[in-house]
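Input structure tokens:
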């Protein structure tokens, strides 16, 4: 499969993607747990059919120490017993925030309250930002049909 358009080689979208990736780095440095970030990014990418992001976030999660069994269960997290209540709240918020156009009510007060039980305001802000960022990146990749399978995570720095 070949991409319809190489967004990185275009002046406008190349700059845009670099800024989006910078925003992603800010979120990685937030107080929102890295494992939660990867689970949320993976679930949003599954919903949006962004193959390259599914590839990226699965590999990044494994490199960060996430168990493959949990990654296999992200698509069916509601029926899986291996996620914490905090992770379930984040996944619920991510799904509702992603499926706005499906005629869903958006993020319900109940979902927000559940997330707020587990995350402080800065973490909630990071979670909302992650949902928004992932939906943007997913759409860029899905529309242009960016192929998956070639992602190699950056090496984890070793401690001296």
């Amino acid at each position: 499969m070949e991409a319809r358009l190489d967004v990185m080689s275009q002046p406008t979208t190349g700059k845009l993607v670099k800024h989006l990736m910078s925003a992603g780095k800010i979120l990685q440095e937030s107080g929102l747990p890295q494992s939660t970030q990867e689970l949320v990014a993976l679930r949003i990418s599954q919903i949006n059919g962004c193959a390259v992001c599914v590839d990226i976030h699965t590999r990044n999660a494994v490199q960060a120490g996430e168990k493959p069994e949990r990654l296999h269960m992200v698509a069916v997290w509601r029926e899986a017993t291996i996620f914490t209540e905090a992770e379930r709240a984040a996944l619920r918020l991510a799904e509702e925030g992603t499926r706005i156009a499906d005629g869903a009510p958006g993020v319900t007060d109940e979902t927000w309250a559940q997330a707020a039980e587990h995350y402080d305001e800065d973490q909630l802000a990071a979670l909302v930002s992650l949902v928004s960022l992932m939906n943007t990146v997913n759409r860029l990749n899905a529309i242009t049909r960016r192929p998956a399978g070639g992602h190699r995570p950056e090496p984890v720095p070793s401690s001296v």
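Helices lie at 11-28, 34-48, 51-63, 68-72, 85-98, 109-118, 121-144. The chain has one domain: 33-144.
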